[in-house]
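step 4 of 6: structure.
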Amino acid sequence: MVHEHRFACPLPNGLHARPASLISELATSFGSDIRLINERTGSSANAKSVLEIVALDVKLGDPCRTTVAGDDANAAQSRLADFIEHEMPGCDEALPEIAPRSEVVLPRTLRRCSARWYPGTVVCPGIARGAVVVVGGVRLPTEIASDAEDAHAEERKLRGAIERVRSSLREKLKTAPSAVESAILRAHVAIAGDVGFAEKALASVAAGASAGRAIVEAAQYFAERMKSAESAYVRERAVDIEDIALQFLESIYGDCVRALDVVLAEAAIVVAENLSPRQLLAFDRRFLKGIVIEHAGVTSHAVILARSFDIPTLTGVADVRARLAAGTQAVVDANLGFVVAEVTPEVDRYHRRELAKGSRRRERLARHAHARASTLDGRALEVAANVSTAQELAPAFERGADAIGLFRTEMLFMDRPAAPSEDEQFEIYSAALRAARGRPVILRTFDIGGDKPVPYLNLPEERNPFLGLRGVRVYRSHQDVFDAQLRAIVRASAFGPVWIMLPMVSSLDEVRWVKSRLAEVRAELDRAKIAHDLALRIGVMIEVPSVAFQIDQFASEVDFFSIGTNDLAQYFLAVDREGESVAELYRTRHPSFLRFLVKIVEDAKRHGKWIGMCGEMTRSPRNLPLLIALGLDEISTAAPEIAALKASIARMSAAQCDELLRAATACRSADEVEALVASFRGRGETQALLDPECVAIEVDSSSKEEAIRDLVDTFFVAGRTDEPELVEDAIWAREAVYSTGLGHGFAIPHCKTDAISANSIGVARLARPIEWGSNDGEPVRCVILLAMRASDKDDAHMRVFSKLARKLMHDEFRERLLAATDCAALASGLAEELGLSADVVR
Amino acid sequence: MKIVAVTACPTGIAHTYMAAEQLEKTAKSLGHQIKVETQGAMGIENELSSAEIRDAEFAIFAVDIDVEQRERFAGKRIVQVAVQDAIKNPKAVFEKLRA
């Protein structure tokens, strides 16, 4: 007999995945046939299938009915009724949201518009607009293995795939780092094992379809039902089904079905859960404008590549694949760290203005890009580029790289079934050296292991891969692979200066062994009369702390050193640099780490060795004075940073940098160092208070927010601040006390902040008057911005500020500012009134 | 009339000096004798001596923050206004002296 139970759905969010999975778990524990019917729509589901239940689209209050038939129907019926009446109403808890990062704040000019936006972590700065292209896990192939073998063989493939994917998901679940990820993984395990899905696919196979065809059909069947559901939550789950189906397909057909064939045909923002380097390289970079990734560490390879290509990239944007609709326009602001899901007129204006500002800043920085960088007092510092492919060299030199400080060759070894041949590598290295046109290239031999596994090397699974077989430690057991690389490099050295750098060296023996291999390779080439450079240099990357205490001894074996700060800091501080729970402890501005660096560089210099630095620490402008003070010969960084770093070096005084480093190494905590570095001025000479570059007429600001931003941006473009947002915040903090509109069409916003590197006056005469909340209710036509450093006492500058303030009370002065016919006249008129001599104005 | 005044605003960069200028300008046009001390980012400037304070009939405080060394003005007739008021309508500030 058939038992029936009727109920109205008590759940405000409807019968979504969580209650559905509980019902299906319960139903699966009985042998009876259990069905759930949504009487509102008349559709019916196998209650053992989460997918079928969710596809019913049961909403709050929908009349529902369960039917139970079978041997244990009595027990099943009473257990089910009990669950529905007593337990189900309490299981409506939503999944925990990942809290948006509080430090990301929407710019004031965008706050009034209603566009949806999501914060993320900036990994490559810039701003971009394009059509959203969702990559990975959500594009089911339309052409898939249509020729089936016999039904039994296809069924075996299908069942095998389901089993493999389920067990791999369960494995991932064991190491899931967060509650949210665990919850999602559990949902995926349930989908992968869903009886409804399996039944549907098996039926197709029985009817003669291939396993691949059957998987695609079943996924489409469920995904379409979910996509048409009224609940947004259910619609978003369609992505999960397609993702699991893709995993089934990959499990049977290999990576060839992966969404690698995504073709970009217009300006695109690529949105993905994660990207492999191979995927990133496959995109047409003419159209790849921006990248938004849900999960990826700052040092993941896709991110490293994105940076080298200067593609604005955000990571850690929770659930973004479900939130950005494919094909719609989006704007990625990877300066402030957010993505906007709709391009309203305000967002469009914001994007255009930011783009224009970025190109003004780049243009200005370009003046410095191709000169050798040295401080005001003459300390030179080479600025080189980090690259991963030969194609990146030419653009890096265009951006002002003095050399290539790190060529990560392991990229050539990854995502492929066998190691690249000697000839293949020779072609790549020699192409790189030709592109370098005589500038040195530091080639780091392959650093594989740890977080960069490569299947053909058959490296063992390790409890802690970062402390296991990686870098130079792999070479002895894979001498054939290493020798091929060495021969390729030595042969390529005929095309330009090559420096070979060894990764993960922890003892002298490793260097000696490599040198013996090198000697042998050279001898072989000599015998074969193959040209190579006899001056080829060899060096070690300092990333294991043990090297630091034997620099004197290493110095007798090698030609140079380069400090790899990412790994050196993680080994030195014993902090996993990608571990979320210890992220707070990973601090390269730790006083002890700074002392360590001082010792390393001093020892290398004492023994007459060249020493550079590659790694994250070179990227932040805040670290620059510390690096200058260390006395490094070179820093090597992502190519897009080079021009700005060179421009900053040219403005600094090495003597003041030295003082900063001395003070920093005397600090007791990283926070103290932070405060010290933040207030560092580092200017060797006073920058002009009034720079004609910061004076403009006919400025196209449409609001107070835009006018303040425009003026701060002129400081940013002129290199007077690297942190324009902090300057803006300081101005708005003052503005909150009372409006700085002083009447007569003038406003005088101002602030004291160390985010400005030099006391500055900016003037914007507006094309159209704007509302400022002035004393006399009049709109503002002329805005004068005063920015003063908080930690300096520069009375001469302050006197100019107070003089300017007093003059603004006089009609004649204001009229003169309003009457000036061009920027130059405005700037020189102002300078004259303030008693600034021509050379102060510049 | 002999008047002393103190101006002081939150950041001490602009409004302190704008208010001082307005008070000086207006006093002159009204035929008063005034000395204005500014308490701004450069500290106390144009400092009032005890004799100057003693000889003045009134003290005007155009301030948004506390006046430093306020004890110097003990027993003085003080008119206190917001900095904004001194900038916007300085004449009204002087009218208060007569009230």
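step 5 of 6: annotate
 - The longest strand of chain B covers residues 33-40.
 - The radius of gyration of chain B is 12 Å.
step 6 of 6: archive
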